[in-house]
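Annex B. Sample input.
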Amino acid sequence: MTTLIWIAVVLLAIAGYLLWTAERLDRLHTRLDAARAALDAQLLRRASVAQELATSSLLDPAASIVLYQAAQAARQAEEEHREVAESELSQALRAVFSESAQVEAVQQAPGGEAAVGELVAAVRRVPMARRFHNDAVRAARALRRHRKVRWFRLAGHAPFPLAFEMDDEFPAALADRVA
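Annex B, continued. Sample output.
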């Protein structure tokens, strides 16, 4: 009889540990969803600010067209092409604001100071949101690689988390501007 009690205690301990691991994985997936939503919001904000700046007549026509098209492509990109579109927007921002003279010309125009400040704030938040998202992906992947998670299928039918890789280098001419 004592052996049965010990077997029951061990089975309950294993079940408790598996339940704790499943709850931990669920919390990681919740954190991952929140981080992805924050990243999407920051990417959308950056594209919207860039598009608004491109249509504001603060830039020269060629720069406006380049920036508008890249921002529009980033806003309308499908999920599988999103990283490329966002990288192209980063490249367009670097091309348009490659020289300090361009930034100063925009700032001198009426409403330009606020537009540049809003752009700097939006561009600075993207790498941080992407880092939070990729950290959550890394944590979820690490837990999902454990044998106990795979053997007992504790992840359920949740898709394997993927990192969001994009070019988010800050435009050099905007680097010294205060948001």
